[in-house]
Structure formats: structure tokens, C-alpha cells
Amino acid sequence: MPKRSSSLATQLLETLEERGHRSTSPRRAVVNAIAGQNKHFTAEELHGQLPGVGRATIYRSLKLLVDSGVLCRVLLEEGDLHYQLSHRGHHHHLLCVECGSSQDLLGCDIEDLLQTVSAAHKFQLSGHWLEVYGKCHDCMDREAVAV
Ligand SMILES: [Zn+2]
Ligand SMILES: [Zn+2]
Ligand SMILES: [Zn+2]
User: Fold this and answer.
1) pTM
2) Which candidate, 81, 2, 71, 74, places its Cα nearest to that of 36?
3) Ligand index nearest the alpha carbon of residue 104
4) What spacing in Å lies between the alpha carbon of 52 and ligand 3's midpoint?
5) In this model, does residue 106 exceed pLDDT 80?
6) CA-to-CA distance for 83 and 73, rounded, in angstroms?
7) What is the DSSP secondary structure assignment for residue 82, as one 8-state letter?
8) C-alpha dist (Å) from residue 24 to 27, 61, 68, 77
9) Ligand 1 centroid to residue 87 C-alpha, Å
10) For 31-67, how does the pLDDT look when each residue is reduced to its tens digit (9 = 90+)?
11) Residue 8 CA, ligand 3 centroid: distance in Å
């Protein structure tokens, strides 16, 4: 779907420009490649798709997009750090360990709990990171059929 990804790429570049980051041609290449991903991806996968763009540029662009809130980091259970497009504020991910799919978990109910435990430890809370691992609905259905 080149149409969709090109308008998405424009949006991403605009977000960066609004924050004072000029769109250079390597950065446009990175953003275009990101807009074309349909699943979470690693920086190395992106690098593989963009042999002409240096690693440093790729990592810097990823960081800018994460800081701008349009990309989020996804930590897979085996420890690989992936990235995926995000237009939402604070959220978590439900990650399927079978097929690797990711669903956004909106609404965060653990903030109060964390405030309480932090206070108990005389610890000043500044943020948290949470990924939820398990089996997605599709994978459970597939298993039910296979049995
Ligand atoms: Zn996310
Ligand atoms: Zn699954
Ligand atoms: Zn949260």
C-alpha cells in the first residue's frame, strides 16, 4: 500500500519538523521504510533494507521518533528490542510468544499500585515499562482446531 505509507511517512516527517528536526534525505529514507513496516521491526532489519544509510543515522532517527511519541519500543520475551509505529500516549503491549503479534494495551491501571509500592520503598517514581507476554486469540483458536 504505497499510498498509505507515503502519507504516513509525510506525517512522521512533519512530526519531526515540528520538533525542529529537519528532514534530510537519509532521514526521509528511514522514515519511508518505517512507514512501510506492517509489524514491529529491529533497527538491524531496517538497516538491512537501507544499505545506503548508516547505522548511526538509523539509530538517531529511531530515537527521535520514539521521543516524539510516534514510534514505540517493544521488548520481545527473548530480549530483542523492536520498534513499532504508535500514535498513542502511554500504553503497554500484549505480545504473543507464538506468532509475534503485538496488540496495544490501552489504559494503565498499575500507576496507583506503583505509587504505593514506590512510596513504601521511599522511592520517587518517574516512569515504568511493562510488556505482557502470552498467547494471542488467533493462536489459541489455531490450537483448538489442531487438537
Ligand atoms: Zn506501542
Ligand atoms: Zn499469536
Ligand atoms: Zn503503564
Assistant:
1) 0.85
2) 2
3) 1
4) 37
5) yes
6) 5
7) E
8) 5, 11, 17, 35
9) 8
10) 999 999 989 999 999 999 999 999 999 999 999 999 9
11) 26
Output the nine-digit C-alpha cell for 109.
491501571
Cα–Cα distance measured from residue 84 to residue 66, given in angstroms and rounded to the nearest whole number? 9
Phi first, then psi, for residue 47 (nearest 5°) are: -60, -40
Instruction: Check residue 41 and report its DSSP letter.
Output: B
Residue 103 C-alpha cell reads as 496488540
Domains within the chain, CATH numbers bracketed: 1-87 (1.10.10.10), 90-147 (3.30.1490.190)
Question: 81-85 and 102-105 as β-strands: parallel, antiparallel, unpaired?
Answer: unpaired
Dist. CA 116–CA 113, nearest whole Å: 5
Q: At residue 2, does pLDDT exceed 60?
A: no
Amino acid at 56: A
- Cα–ligand 2 centroid distance for 141 (angstroms): 9
> Which of 80, 88, 31 lies closest to 60, judged by CA?
31
What three-state secondary structure class fits 73?
Answer: strand
**Which residue type does 52 have?**
G
